[in-house]
Amino acid sequence: MSDGEDKESKTEEPTEKKLRDAEEKGNVPSSPEASLFASTLAFYVYLVFFAPDGIKRLGETLEDIIERPEQWRLNTAADMVSLGLHLAKEMGALLLPAGVMFMVFGLGQSFAQNLPQFVLDRITPQASRISPVQGFKRIYSVNGLVNFAKSLFKVVVVSIIMVMVLKNDYYRLLDSLVTDPHSMMATGFEILKKMVIVVLFSTGLLAVADYFWANHRWYTEQRMTKQEVKDEHKQSQGDPVVKARQRSIARDRARRRMMDGVPRATLVITNPTHYAVALRYVKEESDAPIVVAKGQDLIALRIREIATENGIPIFEDPPLARSMFAQVSVDSVIPSVFYKAVAELIHKVYAARQNKRRVN
Question: What confidence tier does 239 reach under pLDDT thresholds 50, 70, 90?
Answer without folding.
Answer: low
